[in-house]
Hints:
The structure holds 2 protein chains of 2 kinds.
Chain A: H1 5-9, E1 18-19, E2 22-23, E3 25-26, H2 37-49, H3 60-79, E4 87-90, H4 93-112, E5 128-132, H5 141-150, E6 153-157, E7 176-182, H6 194-203, E8 207-211, E9 230-234, E10 245-249, H7 251-254, E11 267-270, E12 275-277, H8 291-307, H9 309-328, E13 333-336, E14 348-352, H10 357-366, E15 369-370, E16 372-374, H11 379-384, E17 390-393, H12 401-417
Helix pairs in contact in A: 2-8, 3-8, 4-5, 9-12, 10-12
Chain B: H1 8-15, E1 28-34, E2 39-47, E3 53-60, H2 63-76, H3 81-95, H4 105-108, H5 121-141
Antiparallel strand pairs in B: 1-2, 2-3
Bound molecules: pyridoxal-5'-phosphate.
Pyridoxal-5'-phosphate (PLP) is lined by residues 92-94, 136, 138-139, 182, 186, 211, 213-214, 234, 245, 377 of chain A.
Amino acid sequence: MSLDVASIRADFPILSREVRGMPLVYLDSGATSQKPSVVLDAERHFYETSNAAVHRGAHALAEEATDAYESARSIIAGFIGASPNEIVFTKNATEAINLVAYAFSNASAKYRHGHDVDSRFVLGPGDNIVVTEMEHHANLIPWQELCAKTGAELKWFGITQEGRLDLETDPIDHNTKLVAVVHQSNILGTINPIQELMRRAHENGALGLVDMCQSVPHMPIDIHATGADFAMWSGHKMLGPTGIGILWGKHELLNSMPPFLTGGSMIEMVTMDHTTYAAAPARFEAGVPMVAQAVGLAAAVQYLETIGMENVERHEQALTEYLLQSLRDLPGVNIIGPDSTLDRGSAVSFTVDGIHPHDVGHIMDSQGVAVRVGHHCAWPVCRRFDIPATTRISPYLYNDFADIDAAVNSIVKAQEFFGVVPEVAG
Amino acid sequence: MSEDLYQEIILDHYKNPRGVAAIDYPLADSHQVNPTCGDEVTVWVGQDTEGRLQIAYQGQGCSISQASSSVMSELLVGKTPEEAAKIQTAFLELMQSKGLLDPDEEVLEDAVAFAGVSRYPARIKCALISWMALADAQIKSGLTSDSASLGRKE
Ligand SMILES: Cc1ncc(COP(=O)(O)O)c(C=O)c1O
């Protein structure tokens, strides 16, 4: 094991609690991660020492708070090799995706009323947006809505039986204005060939957006090497607080976009009938922002940097390999998604013959094992595989092989309880 | 292990569901989904010549939702709208009780087995989905007595 999991676990107070009389085995980090004490301490320290509204006021606390907020931006930017003026703080990844969708929507509406807008964001009938069949609803519904508002068409890459993107049937063409794809699927675990997809987007004059909710927390990312124009993720899935997400965008693009939410802090000059907007990132941060959460997220980033993202990735690869092997060895269990660690992350979905995923999850919970059941906000994936739902195990840096064993044993318990232990031939 | 949730009666109804998947002259139907887990059920309602309730259902879902459809059908088929409404209200109250209500076995019969479900917020919807579909179909069909529409809350 490449990480000292025992000492990592000691940093996470919640991992020592019991649930339903059993030690907690937390395997639902794909939904949200647990928080180390340094993150909680950083937020508390901010409130206890420097709390004030940022970018406003001339007093010492306001200066310190602004400084804390802007240093958090720099630390988070550095984590993916970006510059601070490319980082916009949002409520979560969902809001970050909507921010980009509304840039298109608002630019298109303004264009129709004769305003001067950047044509890369203007959509109408004849244009199209390309997504994949494995998107989280957060990277699907905003584009469905945008198409409904502008008359553009939504197209998508399908999924192969193995749970990979079907790159043969490529819907990208010269009318594509945006290619919006998930980096690592939260339900299948598939890691998509982002560079190739971004290359195809740019070749056709389209912009490229990558949903990195399940990649930034789990692997080293050099954002410029991905070829993306926009990327986003949520702080709460990478040991940070809830209530903060990140939009990364090329600065030139961000500065060409109309705002999403409007109000205080995002303006340059205001009269009763006209306003000019601040440059990015301030343009997209209307109102008093989530300062304590930014400070907490920066602490999470520093915690991960100390451990090293290469080490986190290697550790998760080892866990995933062990998990896939253990599930393969269980008769009656079917893995939904790639069956090897090649281009695959640690979120592993499966079904159990004869037991509904809800019941599997419930029996696992009764053994202290926390997993997610359902369609994982990726309902079209379940339809694609003709299943109502899956059970998903999603480990992180604080899990070890014993956690995987506990999960696998609890699946066997579920099979025994429902009387569906398959007879093994031979 | 989870015996409070998975009572024998529930497992029995899950494995050997009672009731029918179709009736000859349905007056209305209702399709309900649980968007968090993808469970689905359709319930059809009708009336026999004496005005007693007829029910058919089809669906897919977890043991709790499947067993609940079966128990509901067994309890309510052949009842007058007033008798049915009383049972429907009692079941809804039981599901909202957070495990604190002692269910009336006279009224609820096999449905008392769902008392434990009310302690698991994530599973209450599973137990209620077919009852919601029934209440909705009753309203659409005009076969409801006033209190049966209680089941529409949620
Ligand atoms: C791939 C992916 N995209 C988007 C999201 C949405 O993240 P949030 O709910 O934090 O906005 C998630 C989280 O579940 C996710 O896994």
